Amino acid sequence: QVQLQESGPGLVKPSGTLSLTCAVSGGSLSSSHWFNWVRQPPGKGLEWIGEIYHGGSTNYNPSLKSRVTMSVDKSKNQFSLKLSSVTAADTAVYYCARDSAGIVRGYFDYWGQGTLVTVSS
Amino acid sequence: DIQMTQSPSTLSASVGDRVTITCRASQGISGWLAWYQQKPGKAPKLLIYKASTLESGVPSRFSGSGSGTDLTLTISSLQPDDFATYYCQQYNSYPWTFGQGTKVEIK
Question: Which of B25, B23, B47 lies closest to B35, judged by CA?
Fold first, then answer.
């Protein structure tokens, strides 16, 4: 059973950088899946942030692309998200999620439990 | 970006009711649509992908249909465990986008 677990600071100062890590267990990061970040502001809907493949290829949401960096650490079977120049609008629950593998992919079959990140001074 | 619009935003229903939620895409998505269920404080759970394919382990009372720009999620007989918020998501083209959600409440 694949499990994903987010970790990182729950409080980030405005203009700072949000940094989160997602540890993958029960499966390999080096499989044929892409791994994603999705966020959800309190009481609002879901927003896809971007995805990364084990080889380092990435796709980012254009609305966040200038501030997002994703990376993988295959030795630790985990991947990471950095979001720079944060504001209160970046306050959200951040989820990591595994993409479905296959010829057509893009939906998420496994999710982490989510971690709340608050941007405040 | 492809905009996904769900209706209704909130739905009040009783146990045993047949419930239908609609998701309209701003352009054709060739059936590349997923549906998720989310309960308070929990991560979304995949219900359906490719518009109508039921994810393993999901009860058969859930079904998806539609094509082009108008797709639907139907719960044939609402159960107590089904009161939750439901989201559609297109994966036809980047960036992947979600509908705003439909909250299914107890009537």
Answer: B47
